[in-house]
Write a sequence for this structure.
């Protein structure tokens, strides 16, 4: 009995290729117009193989965006205990966004998709929550000011919203890096800290 070599699970699926092909399709045809079957066909895999990596097409867009709070958390933990909380927070945010050019391009694509698709914007609000928790914990641990829980929540939400706004603004610009946008959006908030 001879087995057909094209049937069954592929020996290896390159997650990054799946992501790149899907993001290119979303940009070319529109997020709402592209289905998972179309992505799977373009990559040359089955829908069930695609679902192992990305159960929904929304997860393809959000995957890299969810990593920002993890990168920021790592930067804050490594932040030397010198200088003001606001300066350390700003430096940590900028370090978390210091990605290689190729990753910045993917981040920009994802952010544009979020900006342009109302269905993705719903999660955008929830995406700020982990970032706000990381920022809030940092402020609470390192600030010389004793903020109430409500004040701390508001400050952390302001910073997370400012970073989110800066990144969305940057995605529509022709600037290579988001630093200026982050500086602009954080500029009036950080002095409060």
């Amino acid at each position: 009995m001879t087995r057909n070599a094209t049937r069954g699970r592929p020996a290896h699926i390159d997650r990054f290729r799946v992501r790149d092909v899907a993001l290119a399709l979303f940009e070319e045809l529109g997020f709402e117009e592209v289905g998972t079957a179309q992505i799977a066909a373009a990559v040359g895999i089955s829908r069930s193989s695609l679902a192992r990596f990305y159960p929904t097409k929304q997860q393809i867009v959000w995957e890299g965006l969810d990593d920002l709070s993890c990168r920021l958390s790592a930067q804050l933990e490594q932040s030397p205990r010198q200088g003001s909380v606001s300066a350390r927070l700003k430096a940590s945010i900028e370090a978390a966004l210091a990605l290689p050019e190729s990753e910045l391009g993917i981040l920009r694509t994802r952010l544009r998709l979020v900006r342009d698709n109302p269905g993705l914007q719903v999660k955008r609000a929830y995406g700020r929550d982990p970032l706000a928790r990381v920022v809030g914990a940092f402020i609470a641990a390192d600030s010389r000011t004793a903020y109430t829980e409500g004040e701390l929540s508001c400050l952390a939400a302001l910073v997370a919203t400012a970073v989110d706004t800066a990144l969305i603004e940057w995605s529509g610009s022709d600037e290579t890096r988001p630093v200026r946008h982050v500086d602009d959006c954080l500029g009036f908030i950080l002095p409060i800290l």
